[in-house]
Model the fold of this input.
Amino acid sequence: MSSAAEHADNWDLRHEDFNDNDFLYEVYDVMRQRSAFAHTDHPFLSATAGGAWVAVRYDECYRILQDWQHFSSNPTPEGAEQLAGDLVITLDPPRQQKFRKVLNPYFSPARMKALQPQIRAETDRLIDDFVQAGRGDLAQVAWRQPGIVFFKYLLGMPTDDVPLCIDLTDTALNGETEEARMGAWGGLYQHIHDAVTARMSQPARDDMIDVLLTAEIDGQRLPLQDVVSNAMLLVQAGLETTANAMSFAFHHLGANPQERDRLIAQPDLLPRAVEEFIRFAGSIHGIPRTVTEQVEMSGQSFCPGESVLVNYAAANRDPAVFADPDKCLLDRRENRHLGFGAGVHRCLGSNLARLEFQIGLEQVLERMPDYTLAPDAEAVFHGSSVTRGYRSIPVVFRPGQRSAA
Ligand code: HEM
Done:
């Protein structure tokens, strides 16, 4: 195993040493202490021949996110090859803002809140699968709930297709090999493509596919490819991030029963606890920006075409901003975390994510209030990937009744 200092010289998020998540944060500590910007030969997403810069301190990450004129979300030419279509996340204003104007109302707090009963019922159904046994795997709740909600209630996929779409998404995100992952993305793309095409000849419904199909940007409807690609982006952006953070929370509360009891006794703490889990879990470790013109920040010069990864996870543990950054403090008050980003690309789905997360916690704590990590089985953390979180969280608890869901 290499030392934290060696890893900090050339950070590679996919390195197997980072299956130890605490060790990864030790490496970020070293990187942050050395400089605001590290360099890596191993960027993921938006690759360039020269590697990429990595912003690891809060202040610089925040400033980059505000300065889209110098730090564009357009990919590098190599990165663009991996993309199909005009995606909201890889555009800059003003076109990006026009996309957001179409999509924002769909994700408004009021609209997401209306989904509350459905999200609760779906969460209950997942818990029903094992609640009578007195033991189960909470990763099943964390990883499946956001997918079911998304495909069934937001994309409006036919209900029969939902299990297949969720399986394909699971493989696309967590498949063992690159080939399996790519194959599953291809399958999912085709599936969503077919669903969108079918909907073009059907009466309008009030869901995500309709929003994208009827959107007019600069007086023109979106081409079919952009409709499908943006629907896929939403799947990618919304599922693994929420699932990861939720898996951290379930694990943390199972390992710390006094914290679990505190949340049960003080449910008013839940919204703050959700924010803290999002800060602490570090769902996103680097989204790239491409430098548009020569610019300097904190003594570092950047040249046009260079790639800069904004490391939200490292920024969210910056001791200059967060007291006790490596502690998960459920009642943390000052918590201006960058978990949902900042600036023009700030997360579109944050209202949905918070709701799914809070309801996931509420139902688990209500229906298995005494749950703890199973003493005879290990939780499995999958770290050497962009998708980082617990893939298995075996727990034990006093058996309960199935719900009416
Ligand atoms: C805990 C869960 C989530 C986290 C931590 C998260 C995090 C983020 C972050 C950091 C960004 C900024 C990306 C950038 O700066 O380029 C972002 C953007 C985005 N997120 Fe989320 N997200 C979450 C859940 C969701 C959900 C549930 C959805 C939708 C269903 C979603 C959809 C998006 C989209 C479409 C963007 C791009 C917005 C734009 O480019 O204008 N996210 N998210």
Q: What stands out?
A: The chain has a mean pLDDT of 92. Residues 58 and 320 are 8 Å apart (CA to CA). The domain at 4-396 is CATH 1.10.630.10 (Cytochrome p450).
